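This is your field. Have a critical look at both lines of this record:
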Amino acid sequence: MNNKENNNSATPTLQLETQRQAIMDSESYRLAYTDNDFILRDDLKAVRLQLEMLKADLILKENQIESTVVIFGGARILEEHKAKAAFEEASKALSEDPESAIKQQKSKLAENAVKHSYYYNEARILGKKITELSLQHQGKQFVVVTGGGPGAMEAANRGAADIGGTSIGLNIVLPFEQKPNPYITPELCFQFDHFAIRKIHFLKRAKGLVAFPGGFGTLDELFEALTLIQTKKIKPIPIVLVGKDYWSKLINFEFLVEQGAIAEADLKIFHIVDNAIEAYEYLEQHWPQNNNSKL
């Protein structure tokens, strides 16, 4: 066979290999579970919901987490020294321009932040107290779980870390970046895209729920739990609100009773206290098997 014949036979082979490579490079050829473009299609939302549910569920089971205690609270609650530093800065700025409405507002908010820093310390104490109990159960029961963010959530995870215990963080993807606080046990920190699945994991293993002062997110999670208990969709768990002054001003629960919006018995679904020790004592009353534990 001459050189001309060799070239003619090689050309179709090269074309076929090029075509084969184009096929293998196409989106349709990708394995479905490795194809992010495919997984992120609107049609696959149900699959993504299932994956979010399964991932946290399986990992928590592998780590032998049998029960949890949920701690909610505002992401904007600061540690005392940080709150005081911010207040000093705001006060200085206001003194330089005392007529500024914006600086007056910032100074007032900074003043409130100093007041609310009390709750950072209390959440840290409560996280520690609950984790002391958890360690008596080999870290399998009564594990602190938070939303994984800063503020009261960070404080609760930090309390667990203070004594070498484990704690869980359930972060959520938000339009503005939310980083996990550094006190969560690394292998027990999860990120969710869907609030619904995150809420399931908050309550699925919960033996109690504590809400420190917070905003829409805290209220959303709190009222979800209250509604589920009120409507008997889940078994009752002790729910504690920390901060009598805050909660009494934020929500007039008695008014709801007066208006017939809720029953008087519904007020027994939750309990309001002023500090971490009172919160822990109330929780412990609902954990009879641990009433004799010395913490």
